[in-house]
Amino acid sequence: MTTEKPGPPDADATRRRARFGTLPERVRVEDMVEEKPAAVPDSARDAYNSDEWLVRTCL
User: What is the tens place of the pLDDT at every residue in 9-55?
Assistant: First the structure.
């Protein structure tokens, strides 16, 4: 078994360690999800009463 001391790091190794030496920070699940409505609310469509035709037709 040899116990060689590693030599001084060269410039490429130092640059590589600075760039890839640590893992990126974790991204929370809440930060990966964006919630927005599928369609813009339409007040004219939401004002329709589906039972209104019964009142108009049957009375």
Answer: 688 888 888 888 888 889 999 898 888 888 887 777 777 777 777 77
Contact call for residues 17 and 9 (beta carbons, < 8 A): yes
> Quick one: pLDDT at residue 28?
92
Q: How many CA atoms are closer than 13 Å to the CA of 28, on its beta-carbon side?
A: 3
**Which of 59, 43, 41 minimizes the C-alpha distance to 51?**
59
Length in residues, the chain: 59
Residues 41 and 34: their CA atoms lie apart, in Å, by 18
